[in-house]
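Subject: two folds for Thursday's group meeting

Dear M.,

Sorry for the delay on this. The cluster queue was jammed most of the week, so I only got both jobs back this morning. I'm pasting them in the order they finished. Each block is the input sequence followed by the predicted structure tokens. Could you check whether the formatting survives your parser before we put anything on slides? The first protein is the one we discussed after the seminar.
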Amino acid sequence: MKEFVISEAQVETAVLVGLITKTQDERKTNEYLDELAFLAETAGAEVVKRFTQKLDQANSVTYVGKGKLEEIKEYIRNEEEAEREIGMVIFDDELSAKQIRNIEAELKIKILDRTSLILDIFAMRAQTANAKTQVELAQYKYMLPRLQRLWTHLERQGGGSGAGGGKGSVGLRGPGETQLEMDRRIILNRMSLLKERLAEIDKQKATQRKNRGRLIRVALVGYTNVGKSTLMTLLSKSEVFAENKLFATLDTTVRKVIIENLPFLLSDTVGFIRKLPTDLVDSFKSTLDEVREADLLLHIVDISHPDFEEQIEVVNKTLADIGASGKPMILVFNKIDAYTYVAKAEDDLTPRTKENLTLEELMKTWMAKMEDNCLFISARERVNVEELKSVVYQRVKELHVQKYPYNDFLYQTYEEEEV
């Protein structure tokens, strides 16, 4: 079957394409393309060019307009003539089968969308049988409505019906339709098998969670690449894989953490992202169960990111989608060491924007808004980590007393008896 994602972690050159629409201005589009470039880099591609176009909405046939598509085609042709071959064109939104087919026919190059790129990264990052099964199911869900495009080499070669109904149809009726149906059946059967396997994994995970004893569960949640794994390493004092790439963590890692004389379970979960495919959320149900069943959420935010407020909204929306909203939550603003702002000149009378706020002003704003439910730290520089531990200790203690009222011996401090 024809590949539709990057199958190997090799350096290929890529061109990015995004739209500026009524609901997405130029600044936001550039921000999305920055993220798409980071995704491409994580997948092993090098971005060499970006194209954007202003449209009310995506063209249903070719995503961008005819003129813009011709411009992209011309750029690819010129690069090939200069012996700088372009490996792929990546679009910032999910494309339909028709759009992919039409764009490929015009550009004659590998076409990816944001969803297929994320799926490829997940496939590359998956280490355990659980993660691999979840990724495979998500890939098949993505592939199913696009089978016609994947099987274009087996399409019917002749038209017409009946006795001599179509010119050149005799002997030219290809196996395309038959193969399409057969492949669809194979994929549906495979998906059923994967769902059964995930159901078994769900049962195993549920049993594991029941066997963890009477301990409060705390889950780290947040946008991808905000420092969750680094914070996990700090709090649990154990090595957890952390890397400055998107989706460094796919499998949920659970560690027993003890602060003072209070033990609890801390889990590091997969990061969320804008335009996260619904199929991916559905497939990662067993992984996200750790979030659903947590007693306390630590929502980690990269305060140095220019659009961190939008990232907070994305995480909150995803939590609502998986049925985990409404849980006790502490907002933890990480990377305060990397925060920068633009100071306004004294003679500049234009209104101040969030880019002009100092870290102290931003902290006061959020502390007034969230009261005691937000903290500001730097996991890398270990700034205010002790304060975080103290707050987490108090919250976990309160939850433990409520949930296990007859197990309060954990909080007693025993002095050594004098001999």
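Second protein, same layout:
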Amino acid sequence: MIRLPDATGALRAYVPRAEPTTFTPGRPPLRSRVVYSAAHVVADPFADSTPDGPAAVDWETTLAFRRHLWSHGLGVAEAMDTAQRGMGLDWAGAAELIRRSGAEAKAVGGLIACGVGTDQLTGPATLAEVRAAYEEQLAVVEETGARPILMASRALAATAAGPEDYLEVYGALLRQSAEPVILHWLGPMFDPALGGYWGSGDLDRATDTFLAIIEANADRVDGVKVSLLDAGREVALRRRLPAGVRCYTGDDFHYPELIAGDEQGYSDALLGIFDPLGPLAAEAVRTLDADDPAGFRALLDPTVPLSRHLFRAPTRYYKTGVVFLAWLAGHQDHFTMVGGVQSARSLPHLARAYELADGLGLFPDPERARARMARLLAVHGVDPAVHGVDQEGETA
């Protein structure tokens, strides 16, 4: 057993599960849905860096995690919000990540899409400068052969005077893209600087502008990623998309029902929560491939409490929980993040994340996860032992 703190500071005993749920890599490709996991980056814990300095990335471990996702049949959405883009990872680091992951994807035959933004801009910018920044990043992604994801731009949100400016910038980018792109609508709950995107704080008007861009360039749009945490709005948008344009859900609160879909359609997926859920998510989609929607929901519905916990407000700090679970699961040897963002969530929050993930069987070695959780508790001054049970040591 192990003692875990709750939100009041009280300690209670928790009995970890003894065995993990095993998901075998190397299974057949996913067929019924296109599924991307937005993947985190692994920091170099030995770098002499500061939170406001350039990101120090452990490249080998970062790429190994991508190989883990590909081995289960998932695509990788690279250099996105989950990779701390604009929150510890600057454009120089993101460009290096895109190049390295693009080469790795070619080597293993992995599906990859990469974020295109404007985060090299450091101050007020004109529309021409925003467009040029997008074009610079688009060229880097296209050179790797990855599918571009046109991410929402803080600079464009600050510069645009109205919907017409979004129509102009996005229209120009789509006309010159070599391959169809994914358009990304990231809500202000993920990034407060993106409030009023598409030229209006009214979501109905913003949706109309978004759809106008898509309809004018439907042959240049593979799909749209919607991250508004509003299932009803996503379904309504999905039903208005031109034929052939996919809807990739980015809703980390309602993804099972959105991916399962209804009689009028379904969402594919591009999700940060599929970083810790990768193997389980892939197994769920394979169940859907076998025409078993009830089995799909039976696998994925129980994961929603963990996702809602990790993505609770302030939602932008969900990355801390994602990296924490990667450490507990053994995908990296430390709980250090670029920008020092490991400090963004409280000990009770992390303890609850451990409990929920353990209950789902997400840890390949539950004893290692328990030992690492105990070590984190000890660093915070908590004696994790229960009634003299020895909690020291860590399994290899």
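Two things I noticed about the second structure. The beta strands are 2-5, 11-14, 35-38, 75-78, 112-116, 147-150, 181-186, 221-227, 246-249, 268-271. Residues 387-396 have pLDDT under 50 and may be disordered.

Cheers,
T.
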